[in-house]
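pipeline: protein-struct stage 2 | run 1193 | GspL cytoplasmic actin-ATPase-like region
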Amino acid sequence: MTPLLLIAPLPPADAAGEYDWAQAGDDGIALRNHGRALLALLPASAEVTLGIPAAALSWHRVTLPKGSMSSASKLRAVLDGLLEEHLLDDPEALHFALEPEARAGAPVWVAACNRIWLRALVQGLESAGRRVVRIVPEFAPQPADGPPLLQVTGEAEAPQLTVCDTDGVVSLPLAGAGLALAASLPLDTAVITAEPAVAQAAEHLLERRLPIVQAPQRWLQAARSPWELAQFDLAVTGRARAGKKFASVVQTLRYAPEWRAARWGIVALLLTQLIGLNAWAWKERNALEAKRQAVKTMLTQTFPSVKLVVDAPLQMAREVAALQQAVGDVAGSDLEPMIGALAPHLPPGRTPSAIDYSAGQLRLRGLGLQPSELTRLAGAMGPRGYSVRAEGDLLLVQAEAAR
């Protein structure tokens, strides 16, 4: 879910007072809901984007000297000096924010607003459990390659024209100087919108049909701009900024129209992989089941007395051993083969003091084998199908099949 967008009330409004709010759908573009409510009655959302109205901001164009961006404190001091003569208030009383991707040695836009007012709003929201993840301006200057934006807002009795272009942001009444400003712009390439309350008046004065955009929709568009006013002492921590950037990228990849083909391609690739893996697993399961069935069939055909197959290899070994005993043949688990396999591998001069054989297990006492000798003996007997281990003074030898 996208963060709740709150419109900052102009001073001297209380941080716990009423806010206009808007909330986008999961695509982050379409308006889902909007309204106006006290801070305590706003829709549930732990994260909010704070929008700063145009009346609370001033815009200034400066050129930063080389090396001024080496640290935040140095940059703030440079801005204080550059803007001091252009401000009505003391620089210390104002909050500054640079345009996105600002560079030293080139002209950059700087937004300024009341510092105490903005900090009080942010602190009030965070005290109420609503973390401010971003601060955006209502209007901002256009980049060099962007068309002029003309937006008519306000009430029907007093429409207001706001122009955003490469020369900054200007707001004037839609009459006299405002109309003269509009006439001086390339209206054929400009993007012009109007709010519902002033649409009729704007169309009459500008002599053209205008797209109607509600104020909450316009604020959502402003929230998608690259501008970030949370700088200097209001800057979001690096981790939160990285998380916000990641969420923005995910949102773009998930819903942006230009990524639609890529999204469908990824879905098709995942479905292909899923179908392929399931087909391969089904084939492997069938092959394994066929082998198991072949072993069971061999066991039941060779030994018809076996009716229930639980562990085919073990049952077959037992049946073969029983058959050998029945015909008097010698099996690998009998005493003679065990003695014959063990004797060549015993260390020279080691003779057991006692030998005991029972149920396929040979026990020899008194050999006194060292750990290294026992290891070599086990390694030699393993390939012949016997396991060898020591228990105190006893050496135990057992056929693997019998074990």
